[in-house]
Structures are given as C-alpha cells and as structure tokens.
Task: inverse folding
C-alpha cells in the first residue's frame, strides 16, 4: 500500500525510507491573492486551498502561525486601527512603546508586516525589558487542531512561525533589522539583556510545542546570509541546538524556513541540530544549486523545497519548467532525505497546473531509489 | 600632505567616532574638503562595497560604514558651498507599489549617497506614476526600483512602460534589484541594469554614469 503524503513527509523529515519522492506544496500567496481579487480559475471558484492542492494531486502544506497566545501582567496593551495600519501600544509603568503593522491579503500575504517597530530610541530599553519580564505564554491549540483535522493524511500543518531564535525575534520584530545592527554596535549590553529576557519567553513557547501534537515544529528563519551570518554562530546556533535537543527529547524533529540566500550559512547550519531546511530556494533566486547543498550537507539534513517560485511564472516555458524539475531530480537522486516543495510559495502569477505537473513528474521518475 | 589611509580605514571599520575625529583633524590641517570626501570617506566606502560583493563583508559592516560616512559628511557640508560638493550623478530610488520592504533600498541609498550620488528616496509602495513624476521633476541619471516579493515585481515593468508612455524612458537608466529579481527578469522587462546586492549597486551606478 502506498504511503500517504503525510507519512512520506514525516518519514523523510525523520530521515527514514519512503516509497516515492514526497511533495508538500505551498500555494497560499497565490490563493490569497486570487481570493482577494476574485480571480481564482473558474474551476476553483469557492474552493478552499487544501482541496485545490488535493485536486492537483500534491501533498498539502498549510501554515498556522502559533499554538499559543501572549498575555501580559502589570501592563496594558491597546490596539487601534488607523487604516490601513494597526497600532499596538504597550503601556507599562516604565513607559510605552508602539508597533505599527499593515496586513495586505490582496498582495497574497498571510501575515502582518511591521512598518514601524516598537524600539525607537535607547530610552525604550527598560520598557521592552519590562514587557518581556511580564509576558505569559498560554497554549492556544484549537485552531491548529481544526486545520490538522482538515488536512488529515494529505499533508502537514506547519506551525511555530513566531518561534524565531530570541535574538532574531528582537532583530526582526522589536528593533527592526537596520536599527538592530546599529544598537548591537552602540549598546551591546542592553541588546544582550533583551536577548536573555526574550530567551525565557521562547522557552515557554518551546514547552508548549514539546507537549503538543505538532510533528515538525517550525523554529522559523527567513535568513539571508548577508544579514545573519555575523550573528549566527553567537546567537542563533546555540539557541537552535538547545531547542532542537529539547524537541528531539519529545520525539519530534525540527525545521526552519530557509528561503533566503544561504551560501555562507550552509556550513554553520550543521551546528544547529535542526532536521529539516524547509522552503529551500536554489538558483536562480539564490546563488546556490541544490546539488551544492546536498554535497555540503550529505544526509545530515532533510531538504524541503528545491523549486524556486519564479519557475512557476509565465516567464518560464512549460519545457523550461520540466527541464528544471528533472534536473533537480538528477541532483538529488537517489532522492532520500528530500521533500519537493516551493521556494517558498506559488507566486500570484504562477501557474497552478505546474503543481500538478510536478506530481506527474514524480509519478514518472520519483519511485525510490530514484534512478536518473 | 595628508595621509588619508587612516580615514579610509576608519570608514571600513565603521568607526564613526574615529572617522569624525580624523575628518576634524584634516579640516584643521586645511585639507581640501573634496579630498577628504573622495580620498578618505568615499574611498573607504568603495572598499566596503567591494568587500561586500566579494563576500568578505556582510550587511552590518556596510550599514555601519555608510552611517559613518553620512555622519562625517554632515561635518563637512557646512564648510563647502553646494557647487563644491562633487556629485557623481542623481539617483531616484524607491520600492515599488504593493511592497513595503525597504532594507535593501535604504542600504543602496546610503551607499550611493556615501560615494557621491545625489539620492532622492521616494520610500516604499511607490506607484509607477510617482516614479514618472519624479523622473520628470528631478531628471535623475538613474532610476532604481526595489521589490522583495514576487507579487510586486510586475510593477517594475509597469513603471518602465509608464516611462515609455511619457516619452522619458531614454532620459534615464533604470536599474532593478531585490531578492526575487534576477538578471533574467531585468532583461525581460527592459531594465538597463540589475544589482544582486547593495555593494554591486555602487559599481553598476558608477558604470552607468560613466564614472
């Protein structure tokens, strides 16, 4: 009996044998965009995303941001709308900070974008420290479990997306990338204090993941080597190792979202203990080929991805698409420890039928061990 | 004769206090402000760009170096008239409509400003019409567009078409960049140049203005 999509993905993530090359497709940018614009193909009007992927024959990848909610003691959180922005203000006894976000599903997005980060000046350090010290992480699994039920054996619900390593959480969410690097240079002690406090918050999230039914917790990433390499070994790697070790002790394997330029992070990645590099995005969207990556990592890391988003766009012909996918198969043959997927999504102008085409090519070439 | 190698090194190190100190010392020694800028500050920043392109440096080093030069230029600017400030060319930059990502664009702006380009940053979420208006008004040598998400890349082509419709396409060189943007895409939409990273933007813009 053939393995289910879910069984294949999980087996590959655990570096176990599979009958056929697994495929976990992600199409939410395409889906959200066309839903917002009323431009889904006629056949798929009124369909949900999971059923579209089922119709294409692909394994399903569904996102769910988190299985917890943050609650605060001894401070007030006030949210107000200032269209198109949402302003969130944390009012504490030692001062206030505010975050400005915008949500644009019409652009295909499924998460908010931080337009203006809470940290504005060094006077905000005690306020953010206070917020971290008074943060409670409370399990909130019901929506995740509903999605899990909806996807069933046809794929995986990926969650844990705000599980950034604590320093990346500070960098991305609280300070913003540019300001973070200036602050790390100008005020390293204060940034270090935020890091230690944020680590305590992250540990509480980890415990919830550890006790949950989530099979491959996402420890997130969105790395680009030009940004993150200088801080990777000192701040990211030790945390990822600690998180992976803990989750391994709970019988889970871990993944990160590696859709950026990874060249100089590839050797550092092996120190993290992370099992799966999801959303792997090779040339031409980054400088690294999948063959190079496999050579560097061998069978130590399972790779999920391999087909860059642009390949789904009309600028590439059907023939070019087929050639790319078959060449990818050749680079990864015999195919173990690999899950085919997008790097990192089906773009809004991508061709949905190419998802089905991948399924056909896997049916033709993807039986294990692959011989190409 | 002033030795600018120490100033250049301070820029490369991203050491703004040392850079400011050396700039002030050079001014006290009656150095030509233009020399301080070109032989010290800009030379340092060009080296930083080269080290970034070769993979030796990362974005944090570029940010710190660019900030160092920006702060030092603030010391020099009051000492010279506008006509004495050597301008490499004028560049208008922006992130295309629908896209709010700005780190790459900001970095390119800082680097180009640091090496002597007059940079006008239109910000993020910029409609083609606004790019066209800016080209008409400011007559830049180069128009730079950035996009980080695939959804917004078509706005680059729409902007080039808008420039053509306004009969000003030939007046300006168009360059594009951003994570999902490739040379293939740049060629396809008729851009004049593509940058895979901020460091290479200096080299590309210098080449496009014949510097």
Result:
């Amino acid at each position: 009996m053939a393995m289910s999509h879910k069984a294949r993905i999980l087996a590959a993530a655990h570096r176990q044998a599979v009958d056929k090359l697994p495929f976990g497709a992600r199409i939410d940018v395409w889906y959200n965009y066309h839903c917002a614009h009323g431009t889904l193909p006629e056949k798929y009007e009124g369909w949900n995303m999971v059923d579209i992927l089922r119709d294409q024959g692909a394994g399903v990848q569904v996102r769910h941001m988190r299985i917890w909610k943050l609650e605060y003691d001894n401070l007030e959180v006030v949210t107000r709308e200032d269209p198109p922005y949402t302003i969130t203000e944390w009012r504490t006894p030692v001062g206030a900070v505010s975050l400005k976000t915008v949500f644009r599903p019409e652009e295909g997005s499924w998460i908010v974008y931080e337009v203006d980060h809470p940290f504005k000046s060094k006077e905000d350090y005690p306020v953010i420290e206070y917020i971290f010290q008074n943060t409670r992480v409370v399990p909130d699994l019901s929506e995740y479990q509903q999605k899990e039920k909806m996807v069933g054996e046809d794929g995986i619900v990926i969650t844990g997306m705000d599980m950034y390593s604590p320093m990346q959480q500070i960098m991305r969410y609280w300070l913003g990338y540019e300001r973070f690097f200036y602050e790390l240079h100008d005020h390293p002690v204060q940034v270090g204090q935020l890091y230690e406090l944020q680590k305590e918050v992250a540990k509480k999230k980890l415990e919830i993941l550890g006790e949950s039914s989530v099979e491959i917790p996402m420890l997130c990433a969105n790395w680009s080597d030009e940004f993150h390499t200088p801080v990777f070994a000192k701040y990211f790697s030790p945390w990822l190792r600690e998180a992976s070790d803990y989750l391994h002790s709970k019988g889970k394997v871990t993944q990160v979202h590696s859709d950026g330029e990874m060249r100089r992070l590839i050797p550092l990645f092996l120190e993290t203990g992370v099992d799966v590099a999801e959303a792997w995005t090779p040339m031409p969207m980054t400088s690294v080929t999948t063959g190079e990556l496999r050579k560097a990592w061998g069978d130590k890391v399972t790779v999920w991805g391999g087909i860059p988003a642009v390949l789904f766009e009309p600028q590439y012909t059907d023939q070019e698409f087929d050639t790319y996918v078959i060449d990818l198969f050749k680079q990864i043959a015999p195919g173990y420890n690999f899950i085919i997927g997008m790097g990192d999504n089906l773009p809004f102008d991508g061709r949905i039928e190419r998802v089905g085409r991948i399924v056909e090519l896997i049916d033709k070439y993807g039986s294990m061990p692959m011989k190409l | 004769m002033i030795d600018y190698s120490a100033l250049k090194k301070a820029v490369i190190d991203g050491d703004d206090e040392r850079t400011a100190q050396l700039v002030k010392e050079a001014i006290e020694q009656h150095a030509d402000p233009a020399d301080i800028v070109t032989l010290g500050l800009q030379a340092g920043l060009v080296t930083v760009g080269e080290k970034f392109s070769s993979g030796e440096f990362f974005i944090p080093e570029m940010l710190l170096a660019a900030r160092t030069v920006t702060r030092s230029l603030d010391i020099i600017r009051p000492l010279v008239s506008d006509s004495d400030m050597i301008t490499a060319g004028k560049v208008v930059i922006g992130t295309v409509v629908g896209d709010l990502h700005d780190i790459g664009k900001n970095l390119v702006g800082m680097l180009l400003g640091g090496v002597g380009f007059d940079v006008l940053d239109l910000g993020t979420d910029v409609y083609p019409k606004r790019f066209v208006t800016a080209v008409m008004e400011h007559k830049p040598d180069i128009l730079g567009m950035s996009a980080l998400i695939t959804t917004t890349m078509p706005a680059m082509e729409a902007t080039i078409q808008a420039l053509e419709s306004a009969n000003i396409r030939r007046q300006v060189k168009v360059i594009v960049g951003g994570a999902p943007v490739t040379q293939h895409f740049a060629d396809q939409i008729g851009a004049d140049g593509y940058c895979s990273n901020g460091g290479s933007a200096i080299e590309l813009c210098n080449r496009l203005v014949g510097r």
Summary: Chain B touches chain A through 28 residues (CB under 8 Å). The two ends of chain B are 26 Å apart (CA to CA). The beta strands of chain B are 89-95, 117-121, 142-146, 173-177, 193-195.
